[in-house]
Amino acid sequence: MLLNTYEPWKFAFSQENENIKENSFGIIGVSFDSTTSYHSGARLGPIVVREASFGFEKYNTVFNKDLTTSFYDFGDVNVVPGNCEKTCQIIEDTVNDLLDMDIKPIIIGGEHSASIGAIKAIGERYDRLTVIHLDAHRDLAFEFVGEKYSHATVMRRVHEFGVNLVQIGIRSSSKEEEEYVKSTYNIQTFKTKDVHKHMDAIEYYLVNIDGPIYISIDMDVFDPAFAPNVGNPTPGGLYISEVETILETLSRKNIVGFDVVETASKELGDTTAVVAAKVIYDFLTLID
Question: DSSP label at 42?
Answer without folding.
Answer: G
